[in-house]
Amino acid sequence: MNAVGIDVSKGKSTIAVIQPFGVVIAEPFDVSHTESDLNKLVQLIKSLSGETKVVMEYTGAYYEPIANALHNQGIFVSVVNPLLIDDYGTNRVRKVKTDKKDSLKIASFAIDKWLDLREYIPANDIRKTLKILNRQYVQYNKILVMQKNNLISLLDSCFPNANTLFTSPRRESDGHEKWVDFVLKFPHIHSISKLSLSAFKVKYQSWCRKNNYNYSDKKVADIHSYCKTQISVLPMTDSVIKIITEAAVMLNSTLETLCTFRDEMDRLSSTLPEYNAVMGIYGVGKVLCSQLIAEIGDVRKLNNSKSLVAMAGIDPPPNQSGKVDTKSRSISKRGSPVLRKTLFQIMTIIIQNKPVDDPVYQFLNKKRSEGKPYRVYKIAAAHKFLRIYYARVMQALN
């Protein structure tokens, strides 16, 4: 019975091997994540007599090279949540934090939890790529918000409220928003107010035709009259025009990137067996479907729907001691924040559309009628949604 504890870091790992009762077989040593070093590690583990299990922490993507190398050689590998290792006692008053001590701590954890360890199964390439795409999509959305706020702030000085002139949704073909393309053509109110209505009409109609936007005589008149009433703080100089157009070009570039990500995420998720089942759940469109599948992954790795709720971090942990038994508790937030955000977006859609036949909305409405606060019934509905998700996806996969 050999427990191999691996403390993973970027490019290298620290290894320790122990047996029951604290017998150290191999003092902690470092291994680089190179083919030659990993092959030596495999040979060392295979040379150990008796049953051997390897345990390491889930640390972003750093653990994957060594976990995959050992798994592919038929070695039992278990990847555990770092919180479990952190909460594991070391019988020390003075806290010690080094890679060598951590590797011994992980190996001791493996001995104590020997029968409970779950074998690591690498995610297939599609699911892995889909998750990376989703994380990039989330990051670019943050950039998009900053770029929009920046452009709107700049326009306040030369074209106030230009972002409110159009209510058209983003264009599916390239992700462009009409108001952004509009300020690229007309970056200053004087580029419109100094024109006659007929001259502006000709330019606007030509711009709509060139960019495949709908044209409306009423919209032309509304924009022209609006610009006549506005005051600009900055003059219409070449420098001001360049500032606005460069900010708009950068924003369009991000919009195009996000459109590319959405299309690729949908293409990848549509190849997975649970795609149709997830798309059939109310409130889930192509983007949210891809995000759910990316963050949750293969539900067969989970024991039950409660594990899925814990993965999202929306489970309120019990808080009871002596005569104190707290009934109102906050969610743990120990799961994926990206998954939680996706769930709350779906709940918002359900609340706005009020689908009376949808079981999630019925449950949400029941909790709301009981007088539960907004966040409480929203989280309760997210619980219900995940239980339905788990049941439907398991049915589709089996």
Could you give the distance between the termini?
35 Å
Q: What is the 3D shape?
A: elongated
> Helix and strand string, N-terminal first?
EEEHEHEHHHHHHHHHHHEEHHH
Largest sheet properties: 5 strands, mixed
Q: Widest sheet: strand order?
A: 3-2-1-4-5
- Mean pLDDT, to the nearest integer, reads 89
* Helix proportion range: 55-70%
The Cα radius of gyration reads 28 Å
Description:
By secondary structure, this protein is of the alpha/beta class. It is 55% helix and 10% strand. The protein contains 16 helices and seven strands. It has helices at 35-46, 64-72, 82-87, 99-112, 125-155, 178-185, 190-193, 197-211, 217-229, 238-269, 275-279, 286-296, 305-312, 337-353, 359-369, 374-397, and strands at residues 2-9, 12-19, 23-32, 52-57, 76-80, 320-321, 324-325. It has a five-stranded mixed sheet. The protein has a two-stranded antiparallel ribbon with strand order 6-7.
